[in-house]
Design a protein that fits this description.
The complex is a heterodimer of chains A (349) and B (394). With 349 residues, chain A is an alpha/beta fold. Chain A folds into two domains: 17-194, Thiamin diphosphate (ThDP)-binding fold, Pyr/PP domains (Rossmann fold, 3-Layer(aba) Sandwich), CATH 3.40.50.970; 211-339, Rossmann fold (3-Layer(aba) Sandwich). Chain A is built from twelve helices and 14 strands. The longest helix of chain A is centred in the N-terminal third of the chain and has 15 residues, at 19-33. The radius of gyration of chain A is 20 Å and the shape is globular. Chain A starts with 16 loop residues before the first strand and ends in a 15-residue tail after the last helix. Chain B has 394 residues and is of the alpha/beta class. Chain B has 16 helices and seven strands. The termini of chain B are far apart. Classes of the chains: A alpha/beta (349), B alpha/beta (394). The interface between A and B is large, with 47 and 43 residues.
Chain lengths: 349, 394
């Protein structure tokens, strides 16, 4: 377990960079470092991607390295599989969460299984970048939280950054990984800023390590990606109500860092899992089960979930009712059976 | 026309005469010259005047491969009856396309077979026991794909085609002389991945040859229910690549057309779609009952156009096939089948712990826990067996 420095605190000599800039820099550094790295997808070349994450890369590295493909996600991922078979390290962009679905057969039947199918002879070092989640006023098919589909597929790593530093470090690590990685980019955090210094990029974070974003004694909020800043905000607001909340940013759903999560819950004795994805069949159910199985005797209350409703993603004008917000998180914290402990200070510290 | 603002009127004729309509930008075809439509009739060599030009050494080699391929199909089918194979999708009747696909490739090239194409893999040099590993059930791919440059047999239809395109594209980017030949059936041409692979290949001018074996049926569904295209080879035109329609039972024609397609790919002239018109003489697999969807009369018509018999007729006509030669070829096929039987009759040694070894480069803590659980179960099982053995001895 490690405790991260607050991302909001600026370091001297650094200017704020956005997550989008950090992702672009990670791609650029990977392309520059390893000639096997190829970036491919819809509009990633001349345009620089619809979110400008690949801005300038085609110009710098040429269209053979940064390729505008035909508009066909199964074809993009399927050809990337073939490129990886030949020793390249493709980084595929799926333009939006819901646009990745045509590639699911390639993903589930080949990408996830090729190493295992060939007893390790044919690993596929592929990174699949997927902008995901809501909160940007996007219309239908542009706001899905599709992580549950990916984590249910053995053979894939599933990673998602919540800070500018992690966006750089985790993407570098994903591209360097010899396994396929689903790299979920919280699109509403693309323009979030951090003290990340493009002149001295952050060390590459290993995949599979959660991080405690905020230490606290009363309860643990377990979260990832777009919900991390919401949980941080909720933790600040909770102070006024007498709760000192710990926030764990998972960073990687697969592999799952049981150690960091359970160490936190054993300290606080209470936990709420927070994510945008629907609750039924969502990652929160798995996390709650894992925590309960491993930390039962430390728990003062059932592990609760604050998730998106089990509905198709709402239209932009209604999405605020769907997304887990500070109030809904605090309502859940309030339901963690404090009364039976006789005070708000509860928890088995 | 009177302006409501000024009350002034403008002569209509003057208005019209002041500007010429701009013509739209000139349209031009994307591919110039456009690829030719495929031949209306499947291309044939054997039994036609073209046969005279065919090289005897090549024909004899093809014949040897055909006979061996036929024997392989018979042996694999027999192994299903003996319970040694879980299932076998036979290519009896399709041997010409299968062996030609393997023979036209050079060592550095890649073959992308579908689940039915174990014969092509074997003809490329893969140990048949390894080729049948998937169907025996000991592991999903029984071979190292890099050893003979044969991609894992692909069960999901047409999904291996984009892999072939990506691999060929990657090789070309690296400046390597590599052609990929990808195999698919008539049913597979209805899949989206077929379309996407052909489109990517043409856009990238990737060195790929797509070989469709139109064997008449996708399990039970005949071609008429898969497509309204005049032929599957016609589909190539829409992608801007040449399409060739070939008699898939004519090994000489298959070899010639595939060789040309491979040559073109190697020379940087892009992909080709080849449709081999053939017939699946056996049911889809041993688990299928073909009498439910096709008549014996239809099967008999195709039996008269058998790929092995076609070649025998040509070689006999040339005076190249005496009793001695036939016996030598038969003997080779028998020895091949005996080796396959022998390999298949040996029980594979399996380690259940392999289930956890290759999921990721490095095991996750979750898989380590699950592996430990299985290990404990296996140990308990072994202990119980040992105890029961000791009990019986007493």
């Amino acid at each position: 377990m490690s405790t991260a420095t607050s991302t909001a605190a600026g370091r001297t000599g650094t200017k704020p960079a956005t997550m989008a800039q950090a992702l672009q820099r990670a791609l650029r550094d990977s392309l520059a470092e390893d000639p096997a790295v190829h970036v491919m997808g819809e509009d990633v070349g001349t345009l620089g991607g619809v979110f400008r994450i690949t801005d300038g890369l085609a110009k710098e590295f040429g269209e053979d390295r940064v390729t505008d493909t035909p508009l066909a996600e199964a074809g993009i991922l399927g050809t990337a599989v073939g490129m990886a078979m030949y020793g390249l390290r493709p980084v595929v962009e799926m333009q939006f969460d819901a646009f990745a679905y045509p590639a699911f057969e390639q993903l589930i039947s080949h990408v996830a299984k090729m190493r295992n199918r060939t007893k390790g002879a044919m690993p596929l070092p592929l990174t699949i970048r997927v902008p995901y989640g809501g909160g940007i006023g996007g219309v239908e098919h542009h706001c899905d939280s599709s992580e549950a589909y990916y984590i249910a597929t053995p053979g894939l790593h599933v990673v998602t950054p919540a800070t500018v530093e992690d966006a750089y470090g985790l993407l570098r690590a994903s591209i360097a990984s010899d396994d396929p990685v689903i790299f979920l980019e919280p699109k509403r955090l693309y323009w979030s800023k951090g003290s990340w210094n493009p002149e001295a990029p952050t060390a590459v974070e290993p995949i599979g390590k959660a991080v405690v974003r905020r230490t606290g004694r009363s309860a643990t909020l377990i979260t990832y990606g777009p919900s991390v800043p919401v949980c941080m905000e909720a933790a600040e607001a909770a102070q006024a109500e007498g709760w000192d909340l710990e926030v764990v940013d998972l960073r990687s759903l697969v592999p799952f860092d049981d150690e960091t999560v359970c160490a936190s819950v054993r300290r606080t004795g209470r936990a709420v899992v927070v994510h945008e994805s629907g609750g039924f069949g969502g990652p929160g159910g798995e996390i709650a089960a894992r925590v309960t199985e491993r930390c039962f005797h430390h728990l003062e209350a059932p592990v609760l979930r604050v998730a998106g409703f089990d509905i198709p993603y709402p239209p932009p004008m209604l999405e605020r009712h769907h997304l887990p917000g500070v109030d809904r998180i605090l309502d859940a914290v309030a339901r963690l059976q404090w009364e039976s402990e006789g005070g708000l200070e509860g928890g088995s510290v | 026309m009177v302006s409501t603002r000024t009350g002034r009127s403008t002569p209509v004729m003057e208005q019209r005469g002041t500007h010429q309509p701009t013509p739209p930008p000139a349209w031009k075809p994307r591919t110039d010259p456009a690829p030719l439509l495929p031949d209306p009739e499947p291309y044939r060599v054997l039994g036609t005047s073209r046969a005279a030009e065919a090289d005897s050494t090549l024909l004899l080699k093809l014949y040897g491969e055909l006979v061996r391929g036929r024997r392989y199909n018979a042996q694999a089918t027999a192994l299903t009856k003996q319970g040694r194979l879980a299932v076998y999708p036979s290519t009896t009747g399709q041997e010409a396309a299968e062996v030609a696909a393997a023979m036209v490739l050079q060592e550095q090239d890649w073959l992308f077979p579908s689940y039915r194409d174990t014969l092509a893999a074997v003809a490329r040099g893969l140990d048949p026991v390894q080729a049948l590993g998937l169907l025996r059930g000991d592991w999903h791919t029984g071979y190292d794909p890099y050893e003979h440059r044969i991609a894992p047999l692909s069960t999901p239809l047409a999904t291996q085609l984009p892999h072939a395109v990506g691999l060929a594209h990657a090789a070309r980017l690296k400046g390597d002389d590599v052609v990929a030949l990808a195999m698919v059936g008539d049913g597979g041409t209805s899949e989206g991945d077929f379309h996407e692979a052909l489109n990517f290949a043409a856009v990238w001018q990737a060195p790929v040859v797509f070989l469709v074996q139109n064997n008449g049926f996708a399990i039970s569904v005949p071609l008429a229910k898969q497509t309204a295209a005049p032929s599957l080879a016609h589909k190539a035109v829409g992608y801007g690549m040449p399409g060739r329609l070939v008699d898939g039972n004519d090994a000489a024609a298959m070899h010639e057309v595939l060789s040309e397609a491979v040559r073109n790919a190697r020379a940087g002239r892009g992909p080709t779609l080849v449709e081999a018109v053939t017939y699946r003489m056996d049911a889809h697999t041993n688990a299928d009952d073909a009498t439910r969807y096709r008549s014996d009369a239809e099967v008999e018509t195709w039996r008269a156009h058998d790929p092995v018999a076609l070649m025998e007729r040509e070689l006999t006509g040339r005076g190249l096939l005496d009793e001695q030669r036939i016996e030598a070829v038969r003997q080779d096929a028998e020895e091949f089948a005996a080796r396959l039987r022998q390999g298949m009759n040996a029980d594979p040694v399996l380690d259940p712990m392999d289930l956890f070894t290759h999921v990721y480069a490095e095991q996750t803590s979750q898989l380590r826990e699950q592996a430990a659980q299985l290990r404990a179960e296996l140990d308990a099982e072994a202990e119980a067996e040992a105890a029961s053995g000791a009990e019986q001895e007493r």
